[in-house]
Amino acid sequence: MTQNIAVIAANGKSGQLIVREAVDRGLDVTAVVRGENKTVAQHAIIKDLFDLTAADLAGFDVVVDAFGAWTPETFPQHSTSLKHLADVLSSADARLIVVGGAGSLYVNPEHTVQLSQTDGFPEAFLPLATAMGDSLAELRERSDVRWTYVSPAADFQADGPRTGKYVLAGEEFTANEAGESAISYADYAIAIVDEATAAPENAHINERISVRW
């Protein structure tokens, strides 16, 4: 049973909600932040992600990576940050759960076409989706880390409601009966903590999963 969880980039919008969800469920939560801890976590590590060591993350059952890079010059950090965390957690017992993107979800059963490669995908989001997709592809090559990559729905709503419900899916893009693919950050946080606390037989180790309403 998961007891100790670290949330990296905990001051971000998704990070803060994941911390709150975990604390509300009685978990012992450590926020990993570069500056002042703005979360409700019981503990904090004040350190840049790229400076984290194996000793910093020792003793955690789960490490949640909520890091994001949102400008073209920092997009490569999706790969470099994930590689650093994977190296730090190499051969450790701790699970690494990654807050991912939707653009790399597949739209065909053969898994040859991703959402970001389809007509109508917003051009403005393509560089970010490509960078996040590349980081997932690199993570798939790691067998020395117990990782899980969690893609949100296409419409990832920062201020959406907390309904307490979501649909768990896999590698392929899915939508509801109305053709909508959406999830709030709050309900996504529920899914992250559900995965973090899942029994071993139900955990999605070395898999990508996705969530939507």
Automatic annotation (TrEMBL):
- Protein name (Swiss-Prot/TrEMBL): NAD(P)-binding domain-containing protein
**Native organism:** Bifidobacterium longum (strain NCC 2705)
Task: Name the PANTHER family on file.
Answer: FLAVIN REDUCTASE (NADPH) (PTHR43355:SF2)
Outline the extent of the NAD(P)-binding domain. 10-194
Cited Pfam families: NAD_binding_10
Alphabetized InterPro entries for the sequence: NAD(P)-bd_dom, NAD(P)-bd_dom_sf, Polyketide_Oxido-like
Task: Give the residue range of the signal peptide.
Answer: none
What GO terms are given for molecular function? oxidoreductase activity, acting on the CH-NH group of donors, NAD or NADP as acceptor
Source domain of life is Bacteria
